[in-house]
Recover the amino acids of this structure.
């Protein structure tokens, strides 16, 4: 029986993917095999010795100590694309708010009503204060062409926009999702120079911090409108406010408000609503639960942020799942130990991701416990499961 600890309220549709005959799922389980989490912060959480996996029902993993997990051989999953449609729809809203002062107009109408004015009469005179340009035939620059960015790029085309896209790590799958009319550029500067609107869709890491900064803003058109529904730290707030003050940026829309930007002129800030739809929460929970189940029952790894994707059909009598560093001779040492025990390797696959690697070995007969114990002691091996 696998023990799954939930750190937030998880959609019942996701929990239904973990059948009761194999899984105990609750927020009070102890010595858990895996964790299902949404936004709860785990940086100070003491992981039990047999914790094997953490699945984040969402894309970002900033609430999880990924580096500490990697060193402990804990697989961290996320759910890329599960909330992409919800975010795409909010980006459309953000682009419209960046163009027209919808929020200002809304507040002004309420102020007129509260002051006792005849609203129907005054709005025709006052509406000119809230005008803004159309999206049609304007140019959108999409920084980051993953699951969300690709959807945004494609829908912008349907709005009649010209679209430039930039992603230094553009995957084949992402490229295939893009409409052929998207101008994919290799230089972000080309995107900034052409775009009337810029929207950013990148994960936040130490390398992507302040992707939008004084230097990148300086490359943009005068009067550019910027949308950030990805992560607040991707934009240098001080540089953005200075650009708004100078008129370089006409409006900045973000759903990562803070005390620096919340009341600033030219900023539209609302709560982090990108994935806040019931459909998105269901999709993320189902995907996270499926990832955990496939890993716990079969050892397969898919959509991990700290270990490579390794998926192999089951064969043989036993499956060895080895979490290790990406260093030489580990596979040779593992197969040597198995051959010394007279064990035939039916199938094997290995992949690496940065400093870490993951290996699945299907064997034709049960492996002696002494051999298993010895494999774990091989230099570079972090831990091993036998299924």
């Amino acid at each position: 029986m696998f023990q799954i600890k939930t750190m937030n309220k998880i959609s019942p549709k996701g929990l239904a993917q973990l059948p009761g005959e194999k899984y105990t799922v609750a927020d009070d389980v102890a010595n858990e095999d895996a964790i299902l989490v949404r936004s709860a912060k785990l940086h100070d959480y003491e992981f039990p010795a047999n914790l094997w996996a953490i699945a984040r029902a969402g894309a970002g993993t900033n609430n999880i100590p990924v580096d500490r997990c990697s060193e402990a051989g804990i697989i961290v999953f996320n759910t890329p694309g599960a909330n992409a449609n919800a975010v795409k729809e909010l980006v459309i809203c953000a682009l419209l708010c960046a163009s027209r002062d919808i929020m200002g107009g809304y507040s002004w109408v309420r102020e007129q009503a509260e002051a006792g004015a005849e609203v129907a009469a005054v709005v025709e005179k006052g509406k000119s204060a809230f005008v803004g340009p159309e999206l049609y035939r304007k140019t959108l620059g999409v920084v980051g062409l993953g699951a969300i960015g690709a959807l945004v790029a494609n829908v912008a085309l349907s709005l009649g926009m010209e679209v430039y896209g930039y992603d230094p790590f553009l995957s084949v799958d992402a490229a295939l999702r893009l409409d052929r009319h998207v101008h994919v550029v290799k230089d972000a500067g080309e995107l900034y120079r052409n775009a009337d609107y810029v929207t950013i869709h990148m994960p936040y890491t130490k390398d992507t911090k302040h992707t939008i900064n004084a230097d990148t803003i300086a490359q943009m058109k005068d009067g550019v409108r910027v949308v950030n529904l990805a992560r607040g730290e991707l934009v240098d707030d001080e540089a953005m406010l200075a650009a708004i003050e100078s008129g370089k940026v006409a409006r900045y829309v973000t759903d990562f408000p803070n005390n620096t930007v919340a009341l600033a002129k030219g900023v539209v800030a609302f709560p982090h609503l990108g994935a806040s739809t019931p459909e998105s929460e269901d999709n993320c929970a189902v995907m996270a639960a499926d990832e955990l189940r496939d890993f716990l029952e079969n050892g397969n790894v898919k959509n991990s942020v700290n270990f490579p994707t390794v998926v192999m059909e089951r064969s043989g009598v036993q499956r060895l799942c080895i979490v290790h560093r990406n260093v030489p001779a580990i596979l040779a040492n593992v197969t040597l130990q198995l051959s010394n025990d007279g064990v035939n390797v039916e199938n094997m696959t290995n992949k690496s991701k940065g400093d870490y690697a993951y290996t699945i070995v299907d064997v034709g007969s049960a492996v002696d416990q002494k051999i298993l114990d010895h494999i774990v002691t091989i230099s570079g091996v972090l831990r091993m499961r036998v299924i």
